[in-house]
Structures are given as C-alpha cells and as structure tokens.
Amino acid sequence: MEELGGLSHLYLTLYLHSFAVIMVAPAITDITLSALCPGEDECSLAIYLSGFQQAMIGIGTVVMTPLIGNLSDRYGRKALLTIPMTVAIIPLAILAYSRTTNFFYAYYVLKTITAVVSEGSIQCLALAYVADNVAEGHRASAFGILSGVASAAFVCGTIATRFLSTASTFQVAALVSTVSAIYMRVFLKETVHQGSGDGLTQPILKKAPGVVQSDDDSPQKVQVFKKVPSLKDISCLLKSSKILSQAAVLAFFYSLAESGIFASLLYYLKARFHFNKDQFADIILIIGVAGAVSQLLLMPMLVPAIGEEKLLSIGLFVGCTNILLYSIAWSSWVPYAVAGLSAFSIFTPPCLRSIVSKQVGFNEQGKAQGCISGISSFASIISPLIFSPLTALFLSDGAPFNFPGFSMMCIGFASMIAFVQSIMIRHVPSPILSDKIKNSNDCVEP
What we know:
Layout: H1 2-5, H2 8-36, H3 44-75, H4 77-87, H5 89-97, H6 101-118, H7 121-133, H8 139-162, H9 166-187, H10 231-239, H11 242-273, H12 277-306, H13 308-327, H14 334-340, H15 342-345, H16 348-357, H17 365-395, H18 406-423, H19 433-438
Helix pairs in contact: 2-8, 2-9, 2-12, 3-4, 3-6, 3-7, 3-11, 3-17, 4-6, 4-7, 4-9, 5-6, 5-9, 7-8, 7-17, 8-12, 8-16, 11-17, 11-18, 12-13, 12-14, 13-14, 13-16, 13-18, 17-18
C-alpha cells in the first residue's frame, strides 16, 4: 500500500478544494432566496434559475470534461488540473466581497461559466492521477480513500460554516480555494507513465489500421485523439468493452438521480420543514461523517471481501431507498436519519470509477474517466429540466395533488434503473491486450 502514501499531495489538494466548496453549500440556498424572493420559504424562480444553471453547466461539461481528460493524457494531469482549480476561485471571491442582489447575479453568471471548466474536471483528473500511480488491484481502495478525503473535507467545512458568519464563510472559502491551487502547483508531482504490467499497456484506439505499437514504446510517443473526442470515438471506446458500455448506462441514470437531488432537495426541505442554513449544515455534516468513515475505514475492508461489483449494487440500492424515504418524509427528523444511511450509498462513485479504470490502459485513463464524466454531465443537463419544474409544481399551491415529495419519488425511480443495471455487471478478469486490440479495429484516428 506504499503507492497510496505517494498520493498524499493529491489528497491534501482535493481536501482543501472540497473544504472550500462545501463551506458555501449550506448558505447558498438562503442567499439565493434572499436575493430573489426576500422573506419567503418557497420560491419557484429560485428553483428554476438553479435548474437552468445546472443545465447550462452540464452542457458545457459534456464537451469540456472529455476534452480536459483527453488533453491530460498528452500534457499531464498537473498541467490541466491548474486550469479548473484556478477558475473555481472567482465566484467565491465575488460573494466574499458582497452578497447583495447585483453581486448575486454576477456570481450566478460567473459561477455558470467557471463551473463548465471546474465542475467534473477536477474529479476526473484526480481519478486519472490515482489510476496512473496505483496498481490495478489497489485502485478501488485508492478511489475510496480519495472520496473519503473529500467526505472528511465536507465534515470539516460544514463544521466551520456553523461557527462563521455568512460573510466570513465566503471569505474563508475563497482563501482556502486559493491555497489549494497554490499548494497543488508547488507540491504535486506530474504524472510519469510507466508500464507496470497491470491492465493494458497499449491504447485501445489505434493510430491506423494494420499498425500495432509495441508494448515497449514510450508512452510519450503514443498519439491519440488530436481533437475533441467525437461521438464515434466515444462509441468505439464504449463498444470495446461490454463492462464499459454497462458502466456508461449506469453512470447516466445515477447522475440523472444525483443531479435531481442536488437541484431540488434543499428547496424541498426548505418548503416542507422550513429548514435554514444551520439545518442544511447539520444534514451535510451527517452525510460527510458517514461518507468519511465508510470510505476510509469500511471500503478498504469490503472491496477485497465482496468485490467492487457487489459493493456498487449495495451502494445504489441504499441510495435508491434513501431518495424514496425523502419523498415520503413525515417528520423533520426523517432527513437526518436518511442522511446517516449515506454511509452505504457513498460506495457508488469510487466503485464505478475503479471498474472503468480496469478496462483501459494507463495511456487512456484520462480519456475513459473523461468519457464517463461527460456522460454524467449530459445527464446533469436533462435532470434539472425534468425535476426542477416538477419540484416547483408540487411545492406550489397549484399542485395537481397533494404530494410535495412526488419529484423525489421520480428521482428515486431513476436511481432504481441504475441499481438494476449494476446487477448485470459481472466480475471478469482484466482485458487481455490481444483481445482488446481485436475488438477495436474500427476505433482509429482519421
């Protein structure tokens, strides 16, 4: 497990960045309502604008995440990680200066623009960096630790929010985000590809028909996609492995549900139980503690015992159950209890990413992770367009019937589809290089 210790600078970088991001999450709902609908607990305009922002970010990340992941295969993870971590500072700095209506709109516009580059790309590049530096057998644990570090940052960031004023919250968040970018540039080492014998050592997507590159070729000489991956490129990559295709479908429906929850849950709890910044912080704190304990302690023990595939199904089943419980929450304590169950649902992302990483070689980790992130981003475009209007409708006085959690139940059904797909994923040995080349004859550069 010495490899895991070599990732300490990446873990600390992600911790600081996640700390800054989560600090503002409990406060942003109240700030949005104060700017758009002062004195009200239910505001359809706020729900629609949040959904629209999420959809626009999703449209941008569909293109940017695969592009950044692809470029990182050629120019290095650290070089590309600098871009999203730097632009993520800008919207935090705006609300750190002022939270009046005009500054909120400035934040809204710049957050939408900068999130196109930063949202999803940081996670994608971090996962690719881990895959570059950790042997195949240890990747699930390494991905779990990476997610656990983010969960620990959620806990600490949420606790800090409880003791800071709204103004101080954004000021500290902007400062920490700046420190994370500087720390990454100074201490994080650039990835150096070395054939470790694990997984594939030749790109799935060959340069031209009839040309086979030696496994001893320097990775720097391997040239793949000199442009944004086209739909054909992505299709070829997914068709090269049945498991990759299944993972893509699963990622779509999982992200459809997760984006729906992200866009609607806090507004639902605000209208249903009149929650405020402190209650939101409490729920996020519970989720963070559960996630940190789960991924740092439970996951490294469970993966060798039952495997990533079964753990993935367990996480999706519990996640689906949690969303359905939100939809029928009958008392204000129910969301707190459901948040505790996230200790198991949090298994899903690292298990999925580990399964994907084993289907490609080290030359294509950025491309594969970027492809899955792009599919997830596409789901995040569709999700708010469906669930934000549905949430606004059923929280309003003009609802067709009295069921405030109806949109939550629909989100739960999307998560259920992801769970069913996960059952179909079966454990198979790592792809054999010769078989992989045979299956990718159509995936060539023009």
